[in-house]
Backbone:
């Protein structure tokens, strides 16, 4: 499994009322803002080796700063599949606990099948604190927008009529769509070999802790990451790291289409309370 789920969640819940980072937050006004970007690892100070990864950052329709990761990185019957208005599940930059929380978990969906590739709504929404600065540039990947597939197969989570960013990249023998991913292994790319209801299977690898990390679509004709360009790649956000399964290849990713479609469906049902509704990847450098 990815993300060392139980340890991570236990650390968050057990220390939610400790006030870690409160003093730091009071002093932030005089400090440079902290940059938050795709591929940033997040954890809790009490359990730094139980971590997951941010897949994309941007804003929602309500002006909130938002990060997206994997839903199976959280858990607990008291929080699953509801808007979490309380600041009870803080998120910290794993490389900079001294800053204090960079945000708080506001929603996650993780149900049976989330680690086997069957759950289509395995995602988490984090509301970032106002003091952070959003950046489209991660260590290797620059996200320059959202994948839009006019006329493509519609995500199973999409309300009607579906938007272009709620349609899925094609897969299989007659498609050459590729994902470029970033995590602890560096940067890799691979063709999408299967698309199961918006869960992409690809040769692009990942490892434990990369859950929720970024995947972009390799735009045909664009530069591949290579030693010559420092492993850099640029493209629209296509999804997040999900799991390893029993299959060839074993690496699966939740499509951005599935996440955006579910956010829009939930926002339409209760627009006053939905964090992440209308999410757009940041254009900040």
Residues:
């Amino acid at each position: 499994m990815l993300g060392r789920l139980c340890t991570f969640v236990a650390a968050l819940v057990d220390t939610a009322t400790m006030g870690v980072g409160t003093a730091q937050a009071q002093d932030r006004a005089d400090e440079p803002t902290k940059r938050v970007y795709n591929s940033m690892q997040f954890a809790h100070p009490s359990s730094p080796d139980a971590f997951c990864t941010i897949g994309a950052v941007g804003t929602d329709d309500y002006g909130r700063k938002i990060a997206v990761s994997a839903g199976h990185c959280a858990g607990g019957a008291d929080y699953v599949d509801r808007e979490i208005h309380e600041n009870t599940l803080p998120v910290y930059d794993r490389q900079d606990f001294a800053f204090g929380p960079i945000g708080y978990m506001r929603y996650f969906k993780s149900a049976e099948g989330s680690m086997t590739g069957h759950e289509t709504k395995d995602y988490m929404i984090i509301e970032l604190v106002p003091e952070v600065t959003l950046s489209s540039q991660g260590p290797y990947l620059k996200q320059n927008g959202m994948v839009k597939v006019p006329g493509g197969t519609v995500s199973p989570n999409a309300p009607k009529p579906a938007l272009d960013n709620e349609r899925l990249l094609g897969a299989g023998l007659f498609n050459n769509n590729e994902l470029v991913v970033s995590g602890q292994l560096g940067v890799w790319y691979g063709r999408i070999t299967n698309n199961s209801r918006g869960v992409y299977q690809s040769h692009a690898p990942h490892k434990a802790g990369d859950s929720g990390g970024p995947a972009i679509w390799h735009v045909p004709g664009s530069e591949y990451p290579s030693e010559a360009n420092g492993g850099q790649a640029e493209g629209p956000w296509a999804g997040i790291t999900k799991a390893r399964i029993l299959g060839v290849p074993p690496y699966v990713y939740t499509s951005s289409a599935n996440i955006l479609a579910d956010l829009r469906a939930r926002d339409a049902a209760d627009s006053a309370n939905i964090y992440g509704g209308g999410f757009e990847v940041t254009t900040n450098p």
In short: The helical segments are 5-14, 22-26, 256-269.
